[in-house]
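Archive entry. Fields below.
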Amino acid sequence: MISKSMSPRVENSSAIRAMFEEGLRMARIVGPENVYDFSLGNPNVPAPPEVNQAIIDVVKTEDPIKLHGYMVNSGFDETRQAVADDLNDRYGTKYGISNIVMSTGAAMCMNIIFRCILDIDDEVIVSAPYFVDYTNYVSNWHGKLEVLPANPEGGFMPRMDELEKRINKKTKAVIINNPNNPTGVIYPESVIKEIAAILEKKQKELGTVIYLIADEPYRELVYDGTQVPHIPDYYDNALVCYSYSKSLSLAGERIGYVVVPDRSDQAEQFKIALGIANRISGAINAPSLIQLALARCLRTKVDIDFYKRNGQDLYEALTDAGFDCLKPQGAFYLWMKSPDADEKAFVEALKEEHILVTPGSAFAGPGYVRFSYCVAHETIERATPGFKRIGQKYFH
Amino acid sequence: MISKSMSPRVENSSAIRAMFEEGLRMARIVGPENVYDFSLGNPNVPAPPEVNQAIIDVVKTEDPIKLHGYMVNSGFDETRQAVADDLNDRYGTKYGISNIVMSTGAAMCMNIIFRCILDIDDEVIVSAPYFVDYTNYVSNWHGKLEVLPANPEGGFMPRMDELEKRINKKTKAVIINNPNNPTGVIYPESVIKEIAAILEKKQKELGTVIYLIADEPYRELVYDGTQVPHIPDYYDNALVCYSYSKSLSLAGERIGYVVVPDRSDQAEQFKIALGIANRISGAINAPSLIQLALARCLRTKVDIDFYKRNGQDLYEALTDAGFDCLKPQGAFYLWMKSPDADEKAFVEALKEEHILVTPGSAFAGPGYVRFSYCVAHETIERATPGFKRIGQKYFH
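PREDICTED_STRUCTURE:
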C-alpha cells in the first residue's frame, strides 16, 4: 500500500502525464515539427566530444577493477582534486580533495545535505518562484519548506524583509538557485551580500547555524558576461551544489558535487556526514566511470552560444509580439508575464497554436509562464507567427 | 549544524575509519602482501569484456543527446525490456517494461520502495544477522526496523514463530536478503513458502498489505547448483531489488532495478510511485550510458568460479584449523562462529596474524565473524598458516 506521504504525489503526477500525453497526441495530429514544446528542461546540445573521448580512454586504459568499482563514498581523489583545481583557478579559492563530495547530481547533493542537517519539522526557506522539487527534497527528511512571496517589482530577487521575518530557531537553511529556474535571472553580488548580512545577523541573534545552500546547476549557462558570485566568498556557512547535467549535457549520467568550505560550521564532521549520507541515502557514490572520465575533461563546456542565441531570439520574438518578459541572463529559461491573470487559461490558449509552456503556478509563481529554450532554434522561428497571433488576440 | 538524527552516525563512523586506518598502518609496517583483508565487499573480479565493449559501442553509435540525456525516471524502455526478457527466460514470468523500474543500485531500490510505503513509525522486519544499512534505509523515512533474533540452531533461517509474533498493524514490509549477507546461506523454497504463508495469514487477519522485499544483489553468486527462488512465484505482494554490482562487477556504476509484479497491491500506481520516488529522492534515474550498455550485455556474468573456489578453499582452511563455519552457498561471505564469546576480542586476536575480518555485531550477529572472500586466492593461501596458529591457540 502506498504511504499517506506518497499518495498525493502519485495523484498529482497524473496531471503532468496528461500534459505530456496531450503533447504526443498533438504531434500525431499536426506532426511533431508543428508542435513547439517549450516545457522540458532536457539539454539539447550534445556533450562535448572531449567527454566521449575521455570515456573511451578510461575504459581502454584504466585498471578494470577500479574503473567500475566502489571508491570512498565521496568520490575518487583524482576527480575531487580536478574539481577543486578548477574552482581554485576560477574563484581564487584554496579547495582541496576534502572540500569536494561527489554525488549523483545536484538533486542528490541537496538531498544528502538535507539528510545531514534536518530533523523533523526543521525549516528551509526559498523565494518564489522556485524549482518545485525543493519541496520534496525537504519533506523527504520531514522538514518544511517555507516559501517567500515572489518579488516581481524587484526583478524576482528575494524580498529581504520577508526573509528576515521568516527566519526562526527552526530555520536550518536558505536555498538560492543561481542562475534561477524558472526566472532565468542571476542574483548579483549586491543581493548575495544582503542575504549574507541577514543570515549573519540572525545566526547571532538566535545562536543557530543557518546554511546558505547555493544550487548552481546552471552556473556556466550565463550570457552577456554576467558572473555568478561564488557564495562562500560572502558567507561562511555556505554550501554549493553543482551538477554537470547542463554544463556538459550529462543530465542522464547523474554526476555533481557539494562544496564544503573549511570555514563552514563543523566542516570536518560535515564532510564525513555527507559521505555517510551518500551511502545511506542509497546513492552510495557518483557513477565511477563518469567520475574518472570527468577528471580528464571537466574544464570543457557545451556550446553556450547555442543557448544564448535561443534566449535572445525567443525574448525578441515574444516582446515583438507584445509580451512582457524577463530578459534571460542565465540558465535556459524565460519567464513571461501571462496576459491573462489566470495563466493556466493562457497556457491553454497557447496550445491552440501548438505551443507548450509550463504554467508559473508549477513553480509557485502564478500569473507567469516559463519557456524552456533548450530547443532547436527552428522551433523558435516556427513558433513566432503563433506568438504574434496570440499577442494580437490579447493586446489588440 | 549536523542534525540530531545524523550526529550519532558521524560518531560511529570514526570506529570504521579507525579499523580501515589500522589496516593501512599494518600494511606500511609488514607490507600490503602480508595483510590478509577479509573485511571488504568490493568485487575483485573484473567486469566481463562484453561490458566494456558495449560501453564503447553505445558511445560510438548512440544518438549523442540520448546517450547522456534524461529519460523517464524509471529508465530506458530498451533496458527495462532487456531486463524483463532475461527474467522471463529464467523464471517463466511474463514481465514487461512497466514491471521494471531501473534505479541507482539495490541500495537505492530499497530506499525508493521505503519512500513509497513508509509513513512515520511504520515498521519493517528483518532477521538477524543482517546488512546494517537496512536500519538506515528504513530510518531515512522515519520507519523502524524490527530485528528478529538470530537462529543459529536453524541454519540462520528466520525464526517463523518470532516473525509471526512481530507482525502488527504498522508492519509494512519484511526484508529477505537472499543469498544472505553476512551468512552466505540461501533461503530455500521451503523457507520462502513458510514466510509467504505467515504473511498471507497476517495480511488477512490485520486487513493490511505487507510487502515481502527480496534484496538479491548476490542472486547470481550461487554455488553447487543451488537455485534462488523467485519470490513473486510464492507471494503476491513481493518486490525484488536487484543490482549489477556483483553479477557484472559494476558496483561503482550504481545500476539495478525493482521488479513490481502485476499481482502486487496497487501495482499500476506503485510503478508510478517508484518513478516519482526515483526523482524526488535525488537519484532521478539510473545512469544513462550504463543503462544503454547494459541493454546489450546484461546476460553475461562475471567469472563465478573464482568466488566459488575462494569460498571452498577458505571454508576448508578454516575448518581444517578447527573453526566452526557455515558452508558458503552464495554471495562471497563466510560466517564463522567466534571461538571467543566476545567476537571483538577474537577479531583483535586475528589481527596479530594480520588477518582482518568484520565482527558479527556489525550485523547484529554477535559471537560470529564475517569473512568476505572477494580477495585474491593467494590471500587465502597466505593467511592459512595464520588460521592454523590461531586455531591452535583456541582449540588446543
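CURATOR_NOTE: Chain A touches chain B through 78 residues (CB under 8 Å).
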